[in-house]
Amino acid sequence: MLGDAIPDRLCEEGITLEPAELAELFPPTIRRYLVFHNPQNPLQAAVRLAKNYRALTVTAIADALKKADITLEPAELAELFPPSTRRFLVVHTPQDPLQAAVRLVQNYRALTDEAIANALKKADITLEPAELAELFAGLFPPSTRRFLVVHTPQDPLQAAVRLVQNYRALTDEAIADALKKADITLEPAELAELFAGLFPPSTRRFLVVHTPQDPLQAAVRLVQNYRALTDEAIADALKQADITLEHAEFAELFTPSTRRHLVVGNPQDPLQAAVYYVERKKAGTAVSADVAKPLFLESNGKSAITS
User: Fold this and answer.
1) Which residue from 44, 205, 275, 300 puts its CA 20 to 30 A from 293's CA?
2) Domain layout of the chain by residue ranges
3) How confident is the model over 32-69, as pLDDT tens digits?
């Protein structure tokens, strides 16, 4: 989709990107995103995205923050604005990504332990000091706070409250009931193995952070996808992509933990993510099974790109 048209059009505009830069800035999900939200002129939207991304440097962000009387250490700036966040901003706030960057920092600084605790109290969620400390350590590390301010800029505190409510509701019993309603019947031993392998606290945290509308339904889809991500299904998907792997190489690439990463991070199409994972591995690119996770996240955002 768009294929070689993007680099050709960028060249016409005097913009030259290395193959690796092109792959990072225009993965399949972003190309589909551009086509879907800009049917009249997706190529022009791609040009604007590339120009905005090149302009959204760490130096430019620092200057914009300085004008807003906000000073950050270089390490803080780098941590808050890695390439993935800057890509997200130029995709979803193309009119003024610099202003969006400033708002992100303001929201991040306001998302303190005290602010979250007060918001929980207002929502009638009362926790003991020890519970609160555990919650902040497990559910609100810096990475989650950064995610909240990037993806819910209008009200990250309310998103934090909803995250806690969803996490408390995502119990073994609730997941088992949701699976039963979806006609997925498992023996007690299978269920125990499933919870231990597929639903550790880290996965539950991921589900409530990234699928706040319905983490239980996301849990069901995760199980369905995991069961469908068989050797045969992966091999067929690779064959369609003209990729052949030796048995030993296949076994090394697709361990149970890798499959879990693929279905957790890529619920829409874990098979396509598996293909992408292998393609990047064969290209010699350092990549983990989480490689497509940012693509999934970006594809769930609301577009602000217009033609």
Assistant:
1) 44
2) 111-169, 172-299
3) 888 998 889 999 999 999 999 999 999 999 999 999 99
Q: What are phi and psi of 110, to 5 degrees?
A: -85, -15
Cα 92–95–97 angle (5° rounding)?
A: 65
User: Are 276 and 262 contacting, i.e. CB atoms less than 8 angstroms apart?
Assistant: no
CA dihedral (143, 144, 147, 153) in degrees, to 10, reads: -130
- Cβ contact 167:139 at 8 Å: yes
State the CB neighbour count (10 A cutoff) for residue 275.
Answer: 18
Query: How far is the first Cα of the chain from the last one, in angstroms, to the nearest whole number?
Result: 17
Q: Which helix (H) or strand (E) holds 257?
A: helix 256-265
Helices (H), 73-170: 74-80, 83-92, 97-110, 113-122, 129-139, 142-151, 156-169
187-228 confidence digits (pLDDT tens): 889 889 888 889 999 899 999 998 889 999 999 999 999 999
CA distances from 294 to 83, 220, 254 (A): 11, 21, 20
CA distances in angstroms from 44 to 37, 40, 50, listed in the order given: 12, 9, 10
Q: Output Rg (C-alpha) for the chain, integer angstroms.
A: 21
> How many whole angstroms separate alpha carbon 28 and alpha carbon 44?
17
- The Cα–Cα gap between 117 and 130 comes to 13
Query: Collapsing DSSP states into helix, strand and coil, what is residue 112?
Result: coil
Token digits of residue 105: 């920092």
Closest CA to 250 of 264, 233, 266, 265: 233
Max CA distance (Å), the chain: 62
Global pTM value? 0.75
Residue 159: C-alpha distances to residues 85, 144, 254, 285 (Å): 18, 11, 34, 35
